[in-house]
Amino acid sequence: MVGKRLIMMGPPGGGKGTQAKRIQERYNVLQLSTGDMLRAAIAAGSPVGKQAKAVMDAGKLVSDDLLIEMIDKRLDDKDCANGFVLDGFPRTIPQAEGLENLMANKGLKLDAAIEVRVPDEKLLERLTGRYTCAKCGEGYHDKFKLPKAAGVCDVCGGKEFSRRSDDKADTVKTRLKAYHAQTAPLLPFYERKGVLKVVDGDRDIGLVAADLERILGL
């Protein structure tokens, strides 16, 4: 898989991050999350990081131009030479066009834009059922992963658990609506370029991973 350059797309809770991480661990192709890159740039105090921090401290969203500049610089790092998986970016057509331009300027070509597709009703079930151990952060689910002993964390024995505020049903529905509105146009965009691949994400993680390996020719 040397030199593969991929985009992972999918709704919140669809599993794209999990699959991107598996690809990184198995094939030594770097997973790049814009959220992680922003945090690293801010922590390092780089020029881009300082700009991003100022914008975020003002309660505003980081602009597409700033995100593209950050990715542009990140792709020049040596650890990206073996390929990369962009996780959660681009989210809109302007971002996709910006990414396309910067890659063209570097003489790079996108190998695949992969959508991990899961029905909204399944995502709602996945996200609203999640909770974590307040002590060690181990994740659980009302339906898919309960502690072996009721109310006791399997890992640390903690008895306090918490749920994310953005995993409430109304919030999840709003997030999904925003995802579909912003990202749906990306599918025909990449389909016209002949790089769109769709994976059924409503299955076991291992089966999804095997399907990804098949379509990528791994």
Condensed summary:
It is built from 9 helices and 8 strands.
For this entry, give a set of tags.
single chain, 218 residues, alpha/beta, five-stranded parallel beta sheet, three-stranded antiparallel beta sheet
Description of the molecule:
The protein is 46% helix and 16% strand. The chain is α/β, with parallel strands linked by helices and 218 residues long. Helix 2 (34-44) packs across helix 3. The termini are close together. The model has no long low-confidence stretch (mean pLDDT 90).
Largest β-sheet summary: 5 strands, parallel
Number of helices: 9
Mean pLDDT, all residues = 90
As a percent range, the share of helical residues equals 40-55%
Q: List segments where confidence is low: pLDDT < 50 over at least 5 consecutive residues.
A: none
Proportion in β-strands: 15-25%
Strand order of the largest sheet: 2-3-1-4-8
Report Rg.
18 Å
Instruction: Please provide the ordered H/E string of secondary-structure elements.
Output: EHEHHHEHEHEEEHHEH
Distance between the termini: 7 Å
Structural class: alpha/beta
Q: Would you report the number of β strands?
A: 8
* Morphology call: globular
Task: Show the helix and strand layout.
Layout: E1 4-9, H1 16-27, E2 30-33, H2 34-44, H3 47-57, H4 64-74, E3 83-87, H5 93-105, E4 112-117, H6 120-128, E5 130-133, E6 139-141, E7 161-162, H7 169-183, H8 186-192, E8 196-200, H9 205-215
Parallel strand pairs: 1-3, 1-4, 2-3, 4-8
Antiparallel strand pairs: 5-6, 5-7
